[in-house]
Design brief:
73% of the residues lie in helices and 3% in strands. It contains eleven helices and four strands, in the order E-E-H-H-H-E-E-H-H-H-H-H-H-H-H. The strands form two sheets. A two-stranded antiparallel sheet has the order 1-2. A two-stranded antiparallel sheet has the order 3-4. The chain is elongated and about 65 Å long.
């Protein structure tokens, strides 16, 4: 039959390559669209709270406390803190979206239908992770839009800004995916954000430059990976990297994304954390 290649040890007809690509594309779009529709449908729970929280941060830390602090690294405090608040929103939302969505599917056992389907694991992973990236980027854009009511901003490097946001959202969406796989109950989904992500984010240079810290605590802060993501994004927006080598930061983020992606695929392949 024209358009079909016959082969294989069992003599079964093989799908043409273009049909294989279309099949994978439809599967990816289906999972991705489901993830986006999920957080858009419940936007009062997913998009509105970060916006309200960030407005409070702008008012309290920017207008009230910031006016007494003066400048930091040559910028007004409200301008300096804006990139950190945007990145904090991206990190928490990309992580929590994937962790809660995947665990909910696992808890309802609907994930089993996806896992036994002929959809490749990398398509499943890409659909969930990009759904988390979409939520992180949208909430980051909302926070940035609100911040522009408080500060005037000229973006220093658009490419570095977008790359830092997308890579950070991807990295923490992968972390949320792994969290969702290992979670056994709903409480487990909130443990990592509460006891790990939040402290690391607050100590990751969101509200201050580590240059004002004593030398010992500067060295301790340099061990916090979120510091590199926040300051890389701050470099893209303001041109101020806070002593961080942005090329090194991008390289570390890429390595971390590849490592977590490979580990996530390994978990899907072995079924660890998915079999009861």
């Amino acid at each position: 039959m024209p358009g079909l290649e016959h082969g294989g040890s069992r003599g079964l007809p093989e799908r043409p390559q273009h049909s294989e690509f279309r099949y994978h594309w439809v599967a990816f779009v289906t999972i991705f669209a489901k993830e986006v529709r999920r957080f858009m449908r419940i936007w009062p729970q997913t998009l509105l709270p970060p916006a309200i929280s960030m407005v409070l941060y702008f008012v309290v830390f920017g207008a009230v406390i910031g006016s007494r602090i003066g400048t930091m690294s040559g910028f007004s405090y409200m301008t300096y803190v804006l990139p950190g608040l945007i990145m904090m929103s991206v990190i928490t939302n990309s992580f929590s979206n994937v962790a809660s969505s995947f665990f909910s599917n696992k808890f309802q056992r609907s994930i089993e239908e996806v896992l036994i389907s002929p959809v490749p694991n990398w398509i499943i992973l890409a659909g969930y992770v990009l759904g988390g990236v979409a939520r992180g980027v949208i909430t980051g854009a909302i926070v940035m839009g609100l911040g522009l009511f408080f500060v005037e901003l000229d973006i220093h490097d658009v490419f570095a800004t977008l790359l830092a946001v997308v890579m950070t959202a991807t990295l923490f969406a992968l972390g949320g995916f792994i969290n969702g796989i290992f979670a056994r109950k709903f409480d487990d989904v909130s443990i990592i954000p509460t006891f790990v992500l939040t402290p690391m984010t607050y100590l990751g240079g969101v509200f201050y430059s580590i240059e004002i810290l004593p030398e010992f605590w500067q060295k301790v802060s340099m061990l916090n990976p979120i510091l590199y993501q926040v300051n890389t994004f701050r470099y893209g927006l303001l041109g101020e990297a806070g002593g961080v080598d942005t090329r090194f930061a991008f390289a570390v983020m890429l390595l971390a994304i590849l490592s977590l992606g490979a580990y996530s695929l390994h978990l899907l392949k072995t079924g660890r954390g998915l079999r009861s």
